[in-house]
Amino acid sequence: MLLPTVTPLHRDRRSIQVGLSGAHSLVLHSGRSSVDRLLRLLDGRHTETSVRHEASRLGFDAHELDRLLCALTERGLLRDASSLLPGRLAPATRRRLESEAAALSMRLPSTVSPARALAHRRRARVLLVGRSRLTAPTGALLAAAGVGRLHPIAAGVVAGADPAVGGVLPDDARRPWRRAVCDAILRAAPETDTRALTGPDADLIILFGRPRPTPPFGYGQSLRSVRHLSVWVRDEVVLVGPLVRPGRTSCLRCVELARADRDRCWPVLAAQLATMPGPVPEPVDAPLLAAGAALAAAQALQELDGGDPDTLGGTLELPSPGVVRRRSWPPHPRCGCLRVGIQRRA
After folding, report:
1. What's the chain's average pLDDT?
2. pLDDT band for position 129 (50/70/90)?
3. Which domain of life is it from (predicted)?
4. Does position 21 have pLDDT exceeding 70, yes or no?
5. Cα separation of 100 and 290, whole Å?
6. Which residues are bridge partners to 177 per DSSP?
7. How far is CA 103 from the centre of its chain?
8. Residue 270 CA to its chain's centroid (Å)
9. What is the pTM of this model?
10. Which of 121, 180, 188, 236 could cross-link 172 (Cys pair, CB 3.0–4.6 Å)?
11. Mind listing the domains of the chain with CATH numbers?
12. Taking the alpha carbons of 44, 99, 108, 142 in that order, is the dihedral positive or negative?
């Protein structure tokens, strides 16, 4: 079927354009009005046999039809209907994920189906650890993209400065923080599982808030084996990364050692930042907060989808919604995290 987000458009009397952007568009030159009728058959409700039968009736031979279907498939505009979405989805969930499936169809190679990618996301388990205005919007975006299980972990109650677009609400003030974040996730995707999840059972841990000299309480062991992504705000800049694959990429300790090499007082500063009582206001305006949450969710999804995010071995710095800078963090020679990974694999 043609992607549900694609509408054939008439350029003139002799040509029809399918798709609008570069590699994902195709112009069909033909004086026959039957081309338009043929494209309308690619709606997912007709079998290939019925499409071929109708195409023959409209005057297309098998070779012409094969060329058309092949060209549409190569540009990511045509997929087998069963390959777009996983089976056994609730109607509302199915409708919501149609755009996600269409985007994946254009991004993934033709050998990987969007349905398979979305099914993988649905099985994914992500822990959201730490308190930040970015926590709930990032979780809501991951849920809307099809991640099946998300569990936030942070203490305290919602404060007056916490609400954000896509996050906790003003009416959540004084409610338990974790419950309010779960509600934000469920507003985006009501079918999401927000039950408790332990570190070792997670596929990805996202760490929100100021970096700490030591891992958050109870997660030191998990971070040695579970992939994790750091997300925090430094002054007015959102920092996403690094994303750590334990034993295979530089880790958070590598980052701290590199900072200490550049500034001998950094360990003292970091210790003070990590031990400040209570949540610290994050000086981020609404557009930058939304952009930061989107960037964090995009990096997490790319990792869950089996890609190689830009945050592997680096941090993406977002000083404003339209500007992204990357800072590299190579493995530090005094850390030894890669040697641990080699020993574990051996």
Report:
1. 88
2. very high
3. Bacteria
4. yes
5. 19
6. none
7. 12
8. 29
9. 0.87
10. 180
11. 9-74 (no CATH), 81-118 (no CATH), 124-345 (3.40.50.720)
12. negative
